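Researcher: I'd like a structural prediction for the single chain below. Treat it as a standalone chain; there are no partners to consider.
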Amino acid sequence: MLAGIGLGFRRDLADALINWQGPQPAFVELAPENWMQIGGFWKRKLLSAAEKYPLTAHGLSLSLGSPEPLDREFLKNLKQFFAEVPVQIYTEHLSYAKCGNAHLYDLLPIPFREDAVRHAASRIKEVQDFLGRKIAVENVSYYTPVAPEMEEHEFISAVVEEADCLLLLDVNNVFVNAFNHKYDAKDFIKKLPLDRVAYIHMAGHDQVSEDLIIDTHGAPVIDPVYELFEWTAQLIKPVPVLLERDFNIPEIDELMTELQRLNEIASRHWNLQDAA
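Model: Treating it as a single chain, here is the predicted structure.
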């Protein structure tokens, strides 16, 4: 069972990760949209990474909350990619990013409603049936709820249960939403289906005013988010934990320092050697 702390496999970090000689990340995560249907130089880099690290994939394009049918051509390409590259876990966002065939280039929240539960769950089941694997869906950050009929934790739990899928718990997103919407982060996490957590994301954010945090993935993880992760780790089984950094990416040594701190926290509560 894959567990431990991993890093994102990005093209500007590819050589550094492939040639890294220090303590190894437990895995690397890629965005499949950035690596599907490529050959040549970058395909060789990807396969070199796959020889050194277990791979996971975190998607950006399924748009599970969109009203239009799933993109079957994209799913075919994704399935072919998984046949060529040994991706152990595939995750996506419980959000939508397309409407009317227009890409919105953002991850927008699905309304917390019963009809949205049924809609998202049916699409997740369709994806799982087509790919022949369970996927994990991520709780996303949002800045205003959209016509809610239930609480956020109720919506997430209902979708995961009805779809019979797994959960990617983004600890930073919980922290951001709890701050912005004034709820207790630990109480929220306790109400989630923790037995279905298969993956965790950790990231940084920016506080732009006294009452607003923006989820950016462009800054170091802050102490309260580390503390929330440590509290959460005591409630769940060992799982892969990704350190996300999407821009303002520092030198790999600095990322490895953050990775080591996460590893120290996880090792206090999980037997990572048995889980790996």
